[in-house]
Design brief:
Shape: globular
CATH topology of the largest domain: Thrombin, subunit H
Helix content: 10-25%
Structural class: alpha+beta
Bound molecules: 4-(aminomethyl)benzoic acid
Distance between the termini: 30 Å
Number of strands: 14
CATH superfamily of the largest domain: Trypsin-like serine proteases
Order of helices and strands: HEEEEEEEEEEHEEEEH
Strand order of the largest sheet: 1-9-8-12-13-14-11-10
Length: 279
């Protein structure tokens, strides 16, 4: 999804050039509708970087989650190609400020799910192995994967975090502090109906929201461009579990159009197998 990269660059570029004019429909502060995250609250959140020659800097393209001292989980659509060169990527961890001056971590291996084609068809996940394992600190710590059998319901307390756009036409302004928003999970069947309505195919019974996807968000509270690959975590028996990966959606924070996430429970066996055979 090269358009995503260009859009992200454009959004970040526009906020470097000057803060965009306030949009009365987007008065909310946030990821969309969120708040600045406290340092250390989401210590698994990372930023995925590629080198942009024009700016001579490693630039944020997507979010990601540390799931092990040496592994980051992100969206497949954040990676340019299946045989991507690991040296083209860097990981920034341990700081709520996007360009907070922390050392960048090298990536030694990229594993895109072999069945991934495009986010709308599912399988939107990729694993990045870090060249060196990171030590746990107050600001850097892996998140738990859920058990494969966990059933996520609208009653779970879930949050999405990222440095993405804070409105459909509004990038996160400097100093680019990580944003968090509480989002409500929407059942797949309900979400599928919403997307059918939005696309005009009211009577079409095709499945737009695949079983390996999960919907969350409501009017005014959602993830947006540049949050892709980042974590959707839910409270499960007292601790945070990585339940979703920001994947796609029609716009951001629109009424009856939730954000769509990769359903992590579906891929827990695949993820543990990849990590297990690479140690
Ligand atoms: C994107 O393209 C994107 N509102 C991320 C999240 C959502 C839509 C699009 C959900 O990065």
């Amino acid at each position: 999804m090269l358009w995503l990269l260009f859009l992200t660059l454009l959004l970040l570029g526009s906020s470097i050039a000057g803060t965009p004019a306030p949009d009365p429909e987007n008065e909310l502060v946030g990821i969309v509708g969120g708040h600045s995250a406290p340092q250390g609250k989401w210590p698994w959140q990372v930023s995925l970087r590629i080198y942009v020659y024009h700016w001579a800097s490693w630039t944020h393209i997507c979010g990601g989650s540390l799931i092990h001292p040496q592994w980051v989980l992100t969206a497949a659509h954040c990676i340019s190609r299946k045989d991507a060169d690991p040296s083209a990527y860097r990981i920034h961890a341990g700081n709520v400020y996007l360009y907070g001056g922390k050392a960048l971590l090298n990536v030694s291996r990229v594993i895109v799910h072999p069945k991934y084609v495009t986010a709308f068809l599912g399988y939107d996940l990729a694993l990045l192995q870090l060249s060196k394992a990171v030590d746990n600190t107050a600001y850097i710590r892996p998140v738990r994967l859920p058990s494969a059998s966990l059933d996520i319901t609208p009653e779970h307390q879930c949050w999405v975090t990222g440095w993405g756009a804070i409105g459909m036409h509004q990038s996160l302004p400097p100093p680019y502090r990580l944003q968090q928003v509480n989002v409500q999970v929407v059942e797949n069947e309900v979400c599928n109906q919403h997307y059918h309505k939005a696309s005009g195919h009211v009577s079409d019974d095709s499945t737009l929201i695949q079983p390996d996807m999960l919907c969350a968000g409501s009017e005014g509270q959602d993830s947006c461009y540049g949050d892709s690959g980042g974590p959707l975590v839910c409270r499960v028996s007292g601790s945070w579990s990585l339940v979703g990966i920001v994947s796609w959606g029609y716009g951001c924070a629109l009424r009856d159009i939730p954000g769509v996430y990769t359903r992590v429970t579906t891929y827990v066996p695949w993820i543990t197998k990849q990590i297990g055979t690479c140690l």
